[in-house]
Design goal:
Elements: H1 5-36, H2 39-61, H3 70-74, H4 82-123, H5 135-153
Helix pairs in contact: 1-2, 1-4, 2-4, 4-5
């Protein structure tokens, strides 16, 4: 199904807004780390409050918290690693922020996201639609790495 350019633009704006949340989350969690004197405890608090919001939102919108047990037995193993990957992501941001600053933390993480996204798209991992690596995509990644180097040195 082909999406209209307006719908695509709306989704891109939504993605841009979601991306803007990440540096704010990193800065807030970095400050939380100082308040509780622990990066792991700060990450735990972040996930706990997020979980509370998700429970409330799910109950209000979907009016349920259950799902079929077959999802557990019939799904691939990798379907269950999102939570632990989120812990790695959030905790790494908390640890990197005081070492690199907000800007360099965000761009280095973003570059890592782009590199793995390029690979996921190229091979169609996790059921995503194939988007083969090409020179233009590689140039985009190279420009991101150049951007990180410029930010780091200036």
């Amino acid at each position: 199904m082909k999406k209209s350019w307006k719908l695509t633009a709306l989704f891109l704006v939504w993605g841009l807004a979601a991306g803007m949340v990440s540096p704010v989350q990193t800065a807030v969690n970095g400050r939380l780390r100082l308040a509780v004197h622990s990066p792991l405890l700060a990450s735990l608090i972040s996930f706990f409050t997020g979980t509370l919001l998700l429970i409330l939102s799910t109950l209000l919108i979907e009016r349920r918290l259950s799902f079929s047990r077959r999802v557990i037995t019939d799904s691939p193993w990798w379907l269950w690693v999102g939570g632990p990957l989120g812990v790695i992501f959030v905790t790494a941001n908390i640890l990197l922020l005081p070492l690199l600053g907000a800007e360099l933390t965000v761009v280095s993480v973003l570059c890592g996201q782009m590199l793995i996204a390029l690979i996921i798209d190229h091979f169609g991992w996790f059921g995503v639609r194939l988007h083969k690596i090409n020179r233009q995509r590689l140039a985009g990644i190279a420009l991101m790495i150049l951007g990180i180097l410029l930010i780091q040195h200036f």
